[in-house]
Amino acid sequence: MEPPQGYSINLHPNAQQLAQAYQAVIEYYRMKELLIIYGEKEGLVKMQNILRSVSQEPTKNVYIRQADRTNMRQVLKEAKKKNWTNMIVDMNATGTGLLLKIALQEGMIDPYHHYIFTTLDIDSIELENYKHNYVNLTGFRLVDPQDEFTRQIIEDMYVYEANTQLKLINDVKNKERTIPYESALMFDAVLLFAKALEEMDRSVAFRPVNVSCDVDYVWPTGSSLYEFLTMSHVRGLTGEIRLQQGRRLDFKLDVMQLNEKGLYKAGLWTHESGFNFTYKDSNPVGVLGNKTLIITTVLDDPYVMIKEELKDDPDPGKYGNNLYEGFCVDLLKEISDIVHFDYKITQVPDGKYGVLNKGQWSGVIGQLVERKADIAVAALTISYEREQYIDFTKPFLNLGISILFRMPKREKPGLFSFLNPLAIEIWIYVIAAYLLVSFSIFVLARFSPYEWYNPHPCNQETDTVQNTFSLSNSFWFTVGTLMQQGSDINPRAVSTRIVGGTWWFFTLIIISSYTANLAAFLTVERMDSPIESAEDLAKQTEISYGTLEGGSTMTFFRDSNIELYQQMWNFMKSKDPSVLTNSMEEGIRRIMDENYAFFMESTSIEYITQRNCKLMQIGGLLDSKGFGIGTPMDSPLRDRLSMAILQMQEEGRIQLLYNKWWKSTGKCSREEQKESKANALGVENVGGIFVVLLGGLALAVFVAILEFLWKSRRNAREDGCRRVYDWKGQRQSLCSEMADELMFAVRCHGSSKKPKFKRTCAKCKKRHITHCPLTEVQVDSPNGMLTLHEMKKSPNQPSKEFQFGEGGYLHVDYSDTDT
Can you tell me where the transmembrane regions are (predicted)? Predict the structure, then answer.
C-alpha cells in the first residue's frame, strides 16, 4: 500500500486517499471525540493522515488503542466508561466481526454508538445480529456487486465454484453474492497485465524468454512492458484503473450503512468530489418507532409537576406517565405525536439539572452522559459547558436570568403629597417668579403712560387719570392667572400686556405639567422597593441573595468574567449560612420569611408572580439564553426532535402551551408592570419656561421705555413747545421728566390717580393745567381725588387767581399773557 518504488505497480487504493475518505465521514457527522482501534502495527501507519488532519482542530479529541483477541474487551470497556462513542476500527474482517460481538455483549451496539470500519470488504462481515439494534455503522466497499460487468464475473465464478469446489466468492447468509476485494484486485491485476501485453504485442515484436529471479540477468523488454502497463486503461471489478508512477490514480468507494434491512449504499466517495451523501434512510433513527425511550426530568413548576390529586398516593409509580403534568409534559406529548415514539418519564434521583464537579456530571446531564436516559425534557438551559458533553435541540423557550423579590408595601400618601408632582426647587422658582412678575407689572403699569386712563370716559374735560394696577391689584392679577381663574383687571399698555402674556404662557405650561404629573402620582401605586437591579443588590449587605444550587444560574455567576457578577458569586459562596437553595420552593420560602432575593429564570419568575401576588420581578434580564431538549452526544434523536420543535413554533402550538400554563391558570392576572412611581419634574424639564418668562419681562421693560419716549415726543409735536418747564418755571429735560415719572411710579404708597401732564411755554395760551410733582405739594383727598392746599409760585410765573373747581380740581389763572 505504500507508494511504489522502481518498477512496482500497486492497484490497491492509496493510503492517503483512503484517509481522506475516512476524514470526510468524520466531518459529515461532526464527531468531536474519536477512538481509533487498530489491530496490526501497519494500521497505525494508515491512520497517520487522520491523526494529522484532526490534530489541526483543537475541538476534536482523538484517542488511540491497539486491540487483539486478548485485550479487545478491555479496550471496549474503557471506551464505555469514558463515553467514547465514535470509533474507527482498522482490522480485517475476522477481527471486525469479533469486535462487534464483544461490543454487543457490553451493550455498546445502540443508536448512540457509531463505528467506522476501514475494511473495503464490509460485505463479507456477518451483520445480521446487529441490524435490529439500530447501531450507527459505516463501512466502505470497493467492489460494486450491482455493476453489470461485476455481476457477470460473479456468475461465472459461481459456476466455476460448483464445478471445482473452490471458494471464490462471498456467500453470506441473506445477502447477495460478492467478491472479496483482495480477489477483485488480483483479477484486475491479471486483466491489466493481459491488456498491456496485448497492446505491447501489437506494437513491438518480442519473443518471451525464461527469466530467473536468482541471476543478475535483465530482461530487455521489461521496461517496455512496464511502460505499456502504466499507459493501459481497463475497467475491472474495482472500477476504472488508471496508473501514474506505478500507483492507482483514482477510484470510487461506496459508503455503506446499516439499517434494519441490512447494508445499504448511503453515498459515494471520489477523490475529485469527496463524500456525496446520495441516499438517506426514511427512518435512520429506527429506534423512534420501536423502542420505549427513557425520559429523564426534574420536578419544577410549571414545567414538570406531579398532579395535585396524586401527590399523596402511596404508590405513584402505577400511574406511569399520567402521574405528571406541566408545560414540558405537554410539549413531550406533542413531539412524540409528530416524531412517533413511545416514552417513559422518570425523575432524576438527585433532583438537580446538573453541574460538573471533578469531572463528573450530576443531575439530568449526568443521566445523559452515562447513557442512562435517551432524552432530558425539563427547564434545561442550553450552555457552552453542557454542549461539550451532550447535544441540545433548538430552544423551545427563550429567557434570561432575573431577580425574584417580595412586593414592597404600599406607602400611605403624605399630607402634602399634592406637592410631589413638582420638585421642591420648582416650587421655590414658581413662588419667586410670582413675586417678580407681580412687582414688575406694578412698576411697568405706573411707568407706562398707557396704563393711566380717564376714570370718567364721558367727561373728556377731566384733569385726572387713574391706574388700576396698584400693588395689591398686581399681586391679585398674577395669582388669579396662576390659578386659571382670571381677575377683574386687565393690562392696557403693550409692555404690561407682554408681561401678562408671558406669565399666562408660563402658568399654562406649569399648570399643565403639574396636572399631568399629578394624574400619574394619583393613578400609579407608589411602592418603593429597596432594590431596583442587580447593582443595587451588590452595593448593599442587608438583603441576602442566592440561587438554585447545581443549576445553570449558579454556573452563570460562577463562570462569569464580569466584575459585578464575580463579586456577587463571591458573596454567595462565602455566605454562612448558605444562600444557595436545594429547590425553587426553598428559595420562595426564604423570600417570604427572610430579607432575601432569589436569582432564577425569567419564565419561572413570571409563572410564580402570576400565582403569588406578594412576589415580583426586579429589574431586567442579566443574560439571554434558551431552554432545549437534551440528548446524549451524537444522538440521532436530536435532529428529529429539533425539526418537531421548529414545526410547533411555526404553527404557534408552543405559544398556546405557554399561555395555558403561565397565563390561564394565574390568579393575579397582572398586566405589564408599570413604573412604581412617576419622576418629579426637575429644572431640566421646565427650565425653559423660566427663560421665556425672564425674556418677556425684559421685553416689557424695553417696550415701556419706548412707550414713554414715543408719548413724550408726540406731546411735544402736538403742543408745539420747544422748551419745557416744570411747575417752578424751570426748564426741564426729557430725562428729568422720565426720572420724575419713575419716582412717582415706584412710590408704593402713592395714589393710583394723578393730574394730567401738560407742558408750558411762552407761546401757549394763558390758562394751563400744570403738572405739580407730589413732592412739592401738600394734599389731602377727602373724596379720593387730588386737592391742592398750598402751591409755591414761580417768580417768573405769578398767578392772578386761585380757585377750586368742581371735584377739588385747582384752576390756576395767569394774568400775564406771555406765560
Answer: 426-445, 502-524, 686-710
